Amino acid sequence: MRRKISKKLIAILILTAFFLPSFSYAQKIGWITDIHAGAVKKKKKSATNIFYPRSYRQYLNQALTEMQDEGIEVVIISGDVTDHSREIKYAKRVRAMIRAKGMEMIWARGNHDSDEAVEKYMEQRRSYYYVDRYGWRIITLDNSERLSAKEGGMRSVQKEWLEDLLKNTEKSVLAVMHYPFQDRRDGSIYKAYREAEEWFSDGEKVKLALSGHWHAEYFTTYHGVKYAVGNPLTLESKMGSYYIVDLDTLWIDARQAQVSQPLKKK
After folding, report:
1. Which residue has the higher pLDDT, 242 or 10?
2. How far apart are alpha carbons 238 and 96 in whole angstroms?
3. Are residues 235 and 50 in contact, defined by beta-carbon separation less than 8 angstroms?
4. Residue 14: inside a domain, yes or no?
5. Which structural domain, as residue segments, surrounds residue 56?
6. What is d(CA 202, CA 214) in angstroms, rounded to the nearest whole number?
7. Is residue 153 part of a domain?
8. Is position 90 within any domain?
9. Does 26 or 54 have the greater pLDDT score?
10. What total number of domains does the chain contain?
11. Pairing of the two strands 218-222 and 172-176
């Protein structure tokens, strides 16, 4: 009697699993910023801003492995893939490492990323673009177009493209750029980004904006949009920094790649 019940129960469970709609795990993406891949061993900008360009490979590989273990398929990089604009071969290497893990790289240009690197390895018609993933529209901006300003900026053509794109999308939007919109001294929006910030907050389409450049973490919510600035992958005090972003909850989980032989700082 028990065997018959067990067989019937198993059959019911199999049929239920077959006919019910499939449900996936929460959609998550990876986020890395300011890799600064390069030939120099150590660079010191200030007492708290020390990074190691040559060590990028070890930490990036481990970060990608850890992401892969969590089923991450899309990795966002919010600028400065390379440490020096002339070292475009490092952009190729970073892209190859991500592809080798079966992942897609979505890259926003940083002020250290040259036109040549972008043209060869971003594989987009222009340095700002969008892709649709997991029901989201991921808009990648190039606010390194105006390097004369300390906060960067976008030219009018890109601004017009962004305004039109936001008006004509019904999807939730994740924006990626290198320079943050905010002045970190008081949290105000830089003049160069006030129009873009208004477009972000209008219509409640943009949910999250990821950036880098500061070499320090910063999280805030402004007019309903969550803004996040990440630690560099190769920052001495936070070596191996990367993030897991949950698109369902907008939770950003800060991680550090656990390499077998940590960097020896001298």
Report:
1. 242
2. 24
3. yes
4. no
5. 24-256
6. 26
7. yes
8. yes
9. 54
10. 1
11. unpaired
